[in-house]
Design brief:
Structural class: alpha/beta
Order of helices and strands: EHEHEEEHEHEHHEEEEEHEEEEEH
Radius of gyration: 21 Å
Strand order of the largest sheet: 2-1-3-6-7
Oligomer: single chain
Number of strands: 17
Strand content: 25-35%
Number of helices: 8
Shape: elongated
Length: about 250
């Protein structure tokens, strides 16, 4: 069975390059004619029902999100392509969505297509897409994090995370509603993703949301959080923590 693929790209040279890569590596994918704007893209999607859409974010007179926002449920996989934007990259990462930054290598696109064409739960995929659209909105202050494990895909508001603990390559999220969510990623992964959201690594095994901090007990090297939770603070982290807390508004 052939899968249909639509390229949405306002640069004709880039669109041709993407089309060539797909045709050279995927015999089971039939390429539709590339389009370069929202109106043509909507027409092509509704007419041909593609299984895969490879879309640049910045298009003529608009961006791709105004297109995808027209669908209550998105019935196709999307590979986003973007020129470097720190804000967009951050939104992609915390939403657990794959994306490609220009310029990218042929093998990067091939890998992204292989991942996109695997069988995935469409409901969960749409949750991730909606979370990304939420996170990408600059007016939306309360960002969300996608946490995936074998049981479910959890969408968690970052502000609601109290702290995260680690056990080897697993991280356990402690949420302010009492939930505990375990995912198979190391604490370092989330330390890098959440550092800009007032999360601080107090200890090798603890990553703390400082919005939940109440009192730092220096004598005991313990940070008290909301709900009277206490987490350890390593001796080499104490000075940095005090400095961090003193600069919080």
């Amino acid at each position: 069975m052939k899968h249909r693929c639509l390229i949405i790209e306002n640069d004709a040279y880039s669109a041709k390059g993407v089309k060539t890569i797909v045709e050279n590596h995927f015999e089971d994918i039939s390429m539709l004619d590339p389009v370069d704007n929202i109106v043509s893209a909507k027409t092509a999607i509704d007419k041909y029902n593609p299984d895969l859409v490879i879309s640049d974010i910045d298009l003529k007179s608009s961006n791709a999100f105004s297109l995808f926002d027209q669908y209550d449920t998105i019935p196709f996989k999307i590979i986003f392509i973007t020129s470097y934007s720190k804000y967009a990259v951050e939104a992609f990462k915390i939403s657990a969505l794959d994306f490609l930054e220009k310029p990218f290598r042929d093998e990067d696109l091939v890998s992204a297509i292989e991942n996109a064409m695997k069988l995935i739960d469409q409901e969960y995929y749409n949750q991730q897409l909606r979370t990304f659209f939420h996170n990408y909105n600059p007016k939306q202050a309360r960002k969300k994090l996608v946490l995936k494990n074998i049981e479910a895909v959890h969408i968690v508001t970052i502000d609601n995370i109290i702290y995260i603990t680690s056990d080897n390559n697993y991280s356990e999220f402690h949420i302010n509603d009492g939930r505990k969510i375990v995912v198979s990623k190391p604490l370092k992964f989330y330390d890098e993703q959440l550092s800009s959201y007032l999360f601080f690594r107090t200890h090798q095994s603890y990553l703390v949301n400082l919005n939940s901090a109440k009192t730092f007990h220096r004598r005991d090297s313990v940070l008290e959080l909301s709900n009277n939770i206490q987490v350890p603070v390593s001796s080499n982290k104490s000075s940095a923590l005090i400095d961090y807390l003193s600069h919080m508004s």
